[in-house]
Request: fold
Amino acid sequence: MGSVKRVLVTGAGGALGRAVVSAFDDKDVVGLDHVQLDVADRDAVLQAVGAVAPDVVVHTGAWTDVDGCESDPDRAFRVNALGTRHVVEGARLTGARVVYVSTDYVFDGLASRPYVEWDVTNPLSVYGRSKLGGEHELHPADTLVRTSWVCGRHGRNFVKTILTRAREGQPLRVVDDQHGCPTFTDDLAAMIRRLAVERRPGVYHVTNQGVTTWFQLAREVVAMAGLDPEQVLPVATAELDPPRPAPRPRFSALDNAALRLGGVALLDDYHVPLERLIKELLA
Reply:
């Protein structure tokens, strides 16, 4: 088992990418954002990976605008699927391993229990299909990390949006019929680091623990901020006006079975990093 000395992070300007770069701060880590490296450009990817010569490429770069992907499938597949092919090709040429970050949206949400790593995928949206396309580009020695409902200090995300609108006193109508596992970037990045350093291949579901709905999560955000949770009102997905272009899975909670069965300590219950994040945002 070789050591990890040099790490390349794609999508390093995003919320998760920034957290991953920080998680490897004791290594020789190179982070490239989408301006510095367009993963859809094969020549640019091969040149970048060749120049950095990493032991591991953590591929967080993606187009994650779910509704945008639905209206522009070619761009979605060019970035999320073909872009991953380019990253994997570059890694193979330099002897690096890939850690690829995927999504709960590869499942259709029709299950009545959290999905394990070995469940059959069946994405409903273009975004989900394009990320699944990226999964298919990986080699057996690579690591696939599926996660969900990602929030953190940087970038736009659900927690920050709810907090901002609640502090403005706006009534909030939030869907109460989509279930999932909130996941926080610092915790997720720490587990990505561990999987990379320990060179663990295969599929891993990595989320903070606990299943909730967007509505319940919004009420918790507002309450933790010392505001009135009654301003958060439930709404069914079908009642959203205007409706969302891309379908969302109704139940996409991820069971972190591969970690749990492998004896790896799971991430904290999501309330722990949620409270920490809200304190940081209000400071």
The first strand starts at residue 6 and ends at 10. Residues 6-155+183-209+252-268 form a domain with the Rossmann fold fold (CATH 3.40.50.720).
